Amino acid sequence: QVQLVESGGGLVQSGGSLRLSCAASGSMFSINGMGWFRQAPGMQRELVATITSGGSTDYADSVKGRFTISRDNAKNTVHLQMNSLKPEDTAVYYCKAVRIQPPYVSWGQGTQVTVSS
To answer: What residues form DSSP beta bridges with 80?
Structure first.
């Protein structure tokens, strides 16, 4: 079992920055990848950024060049640095951990990010 706790959300003006953190605990040794997703009101949850255990990253087109995902394996923590925030980035941001074999997925409880115009 892997438990995920997000932090760092809040209210920021357009153009500002926030840094989200996801602290993981439990059986992390077999986790293959972690990522950040977001869900705005009335919208489906969407991928923001992912990072593998080897450090490979991937981003949604809408955040490329503005967001950076990083991983501290020693501290079992994943960060999402968000710069040049836009009102359309407003959403609840969720952390996700994935194991391929045996298949396992864990989600955090989410942290609210609100960007005012």
So the answer is: 20, 69
Q: What is the DSSP string of 52-91?
A: ETT--EEE-TTTTTTEEEEEEGGGTEEEEEE-S--GGG-E
Q: For 88, phi and psi rounded to 5 degrees? A: -70, -5
- 97 near 31, Cβ under 8 Å? yes
- Angle (nearest 5°) at CA 5 between 71 and 53: 25
Query: For the CA atoms of the chain, what is the radius of gyration?
Result: 14
pLDDT in tens, the chain (117 residues): 899 999 999 999 999 999 999 999 887 777 889 999 999 999 999 999 999 988 999 999 999 999 999 998 888 899 999 999 999 999 999 999 999 888 999 999 999 999 999
CA atoms within 13 A on the CB side of 27: 8
